[in-house]
Amino acid sequence: MSKTVLAVVLALAAFCPFNIAEGAEDPPNFIVFLTDDQGWGDLGCYGHPIIQSPNLDKFASEGLRLTRCYAACSVCSPSRSAILTGRTPYRNGVWRWIPGGSIYHLRDSEITITSLLKKRGYETCHAGKWHLNGKFNSDDQPQPDDHGYDHWLATQNNASPNHMNPINYVRNGEAVGRMEGPSAVIAADEVIDWLKSRQNSETPFFITVWTHEPHLPIESAPQYMKHYADIEDEGIRQHHGNITQLDDAFGKLMAAVDDMGYRDNTVVFYTSDNGPEGNGTKGRTRGSTGGLRGRKRATHEGGIRVPGIVRWPGKIKAGSVSETPVIGSDIFPTICDVLDIPLPTDRTIDGTSLLPLFAEQSVQREQPLYWRNHLAPTEFRVGMRVGDWKIVGSDDLRSFELYNIEQDWQETTDVSKKFPEKFAAMREALIKHDAEVLAEGPDWWKLDQPKQRKNSPAVEPPLGKDTTGDFDVVRGSSVTSTDFGYRISPEAEGIALQKLDDPIVDQAMIQLKYRSTQQSGVTRNGALVLASEPTNESSFKIGTAIGMNRHVAFEGGWANVGNAASTQAVFKPDDTFEITVSIDLSESRGSAEINGTTIRFTLPSNLESVQYVGFYAKATSTEFTAPLVE
Questions:
Q1: Burial class of residue 165, CB neighbours in 10 A (0-12, 13-18, 19+)
Q2: Phi/psi at 256 (5° precision)
Q3: How confident is the model over 272-278, as a mean pLDDT?
Q4: What residues contact 398, with CB distance under 8 A and at least 6 apart?
Q5: How far is 41 from 49, CA to CA, in rounded Å?
Q6: What is the C-alpha separation between 352 and 404, in angstroms, rounded?
Q7: d(CA 75, CA 73)
Q8: Is 494 helix (H, G, I), strand (E, B) or coil?
Q9: Burial class (CB in 10 A: 0-12, 13-18, 19+), 224
Q10: d(CA 375, CA 75)
C-alpha cells in the first residue's frame, strides 16, 4: 500500500473510528435514560451545591459531560418524539405536550430508531413515562410496540397519584394496578428483570428508561429525603429527594449492566426532556437552571438547555467535557452512524451524528438547532442557534432578539442593533427554516392553537377635568398637581393624554414614574399610555397591575389587561415604579423595563404613529410624573 493511500485510510478511520457494519459479531447495546423537568443545574456534576447525585456524578466521570446539551423542545412530548425520530417536533407531528384522549400521537409513518434496530436484530424495551399518544393503550393510535418495542411498562403521562406506589402503569397492553415503590426505581427494576429474562443474553438490546421524576406531582421516598433533613422547607426536601430518587434508579440500572457483563459494550445516553417547572421559589418545583434565563416552556436557555452525559467505555474518554451544542434529536443519527445504518432519505433528519464528538473532533450540521413551542411567551416562541449565535423570535416572526450565547450565556443583552448584519442573516435564516419545518409536518398545530383572549371593546370614560392645564385630553377623572407630579383617582377607568408636537413615527424611548396612593383595598395600578387617537379604545397601555403582582401591556380597556404581555414581579404595593419604554413602530414591537424587570410586546397593527402620550389608572388613586419622550 502506498504511503498516500495509507494516510487517507488512517484519516478516515480517525474521523469515524466507531462505525460497526451490519453483520459485525459484537454490535453495541444502547440505553437512553431520560428524566422529566430536570434543570441544567440539577446535579452535583453540573454544580448544584446541595443535591446528592452520587451515581450520576460518578457516571459523568466515566464518560462525556455535555455542557451545551439541549432538549428539542421546552416541554415533554415533543422532546421525546425527537429522540426516537431524529426530527424536530413540528416535523414529526408531536408539536405539543399530549393531553390524555387527544388526537395527537407519534404517527406510525415516522421511522423510529427502535424500529430500525429491530430490523438489525436488536431486542427492545421501554420503561417509564411514554407520553407519545393521547389514546394510550388503545387500538386507535400507535402504542410502544407499534414503534418497535418488544416489551414495555409505561404510563400515558404522569405517575398517578404521584411518584410513590403508582397505580397507572400498563405492561404490554395490560394494566398492572398498584406497584410498590418509587416510580423511577420501578422502571429501572422492570428493565433489569427484562434483561435477566432474555433467552439469549448475547443478543444486542436497545432500552429507553423515561422517568416521571422530577415532574409534578412530586413525591419522594423517605430514604432519599433524609439527605436534606436539615432543610426546613419541605418543598426543597421533596424536590431534591426526587433527584436523588432517580439517581438511585439510574445507579441500580448501571450496576445491573455491570454485573451482567454489558458495561464495556453499551452506549448510555443520559439527558432531560426540558428545563425545570415553576418559578423555583415555592412548593416542590425547586429545580435549578444553573443561572440560565427562563424555565420550562421558555425558548430561552433555561427552558431548553439540560444535563447531557454519554458513556461508551473505550470509545469515549472518561471524564471528558464538551462545550459543543448538541440536541436530543442527535441520538437517532448517532446510533445509526455507530451501526452504519443509512439515514432515511425520504424525510428531513434534523439531528446529526455525534461520533466525531466522541473522538474529540468537530460536529457538522446540515440543519440548525431549532425550537418552537406554543406555550412559550408569545414574543419568544421560536428560536434557532447557529454556532455561538442564537436568535429568539415572536410567534408571528415579527419581533426578534439576538444573543451571543458564549459571551452572554444568561441572555441578558439583545445585540441585534450592535451586529446588524449578523442579525439580518439570522432573522432571514430563522424565517426560512421555520416555514420549511411547518410545511413538512402535519398541520395538527393549526387545529389546537392556544386560545387568545380577544380584545373586549373599551368603555369610553366621560370627559374629565384638567386642573393643571398640562393635558389635552382627560377622561374619567380629574387631574390634579402633587409634589410627585400629577394624580388621577377615577371611579372606573381614567386617562390623561398630552398631544405630542412631534409625533413618533419610528423609534422612541418614553420614561415615566408612578406610584399608588390608594389607602385601602387591593385595586392598585398605573400605566403609561401611547395612542394614535385620544381614546381609551385606541390607546396602548404599559404598566403595573399592582394588586396582581404583575407588569402588563394591553390594548384598549382594563378588560384586556395583560393581553399583549404579562410578567409576574416582586414588589411592595407602595413602591415607586420607574418605567422606560422602547418602541419600534416599523417593526411593531416594543419593550419596557420596570424596576429592573423587562417585558416585551408586539404593538397593535393600527398603531402606525404615536400622537399622544399620558397615563392611565382604573378604580384607584395613582400619581405620575410627566412623560418624557426621547
A1: middle
A2: -65, -40
A3: 96
A4: 587, 588, 589, 602
A5: 9
A6: 22
A7: 5
A8: strand
A9: buried
A10: 8
Q: Judge if the upstream peptide bond of residue 49 is cis by omega within 30 degrees of 0.
A: no
The SS3 assignment for 355 reads helix
- Taking CA atoms, 405 is separated from 4, 95, 328, 412, 449, in Å, by 42, 25, 19, 10, 30
For residue 12, how many other CB atoms are within 10 A of its CB? 11
Distance of CA 244 to the CA centre of its chain: 23
pLDDT of residue 16: 46
3-state secondary structure of 435: helix
In DSSP terms, which residues pair with 66 in a beta bridge? Answer: 322
pTM: 0.76
Q: Answer yes or no: are the C-beta atoms of 60 and 44 closer than 8 Å.
A: no
The b/e string for 226-235 (b: 16+ C-beta within 10 A; e otherwise) is ebbeeeeeeb
Q: What cell does 58 get?
A: 460518578
Instruction: Dump pLDDT digits (tens) for 7-65.
Output: 433 343 444 456 766 666 699 999 999 999 999 999 999 999 999 999 999 999 999 99
C-alpha cell at 264: 464495556
Query: In the predicted model, what is the mean pLDDT of the chain?
Result: 93
Task: Give the sign of the dihedral formed by CA 267, CA 273, CA 275, CA 278.
Answer: negative
- The cell numbers describing 580, all together, are 422606560
User: Are 326 and 354 within 8 A, CB to CB?
Assistant: yes
Other Cβ atoms less than 10 A from the Cβ of 526: the count is 27
CB-CB contact of 488 with 622 (8 Å):
yes
| CA atoms within a 13 Å half-sphere pointing along the CA-CB vector of 520 | 0
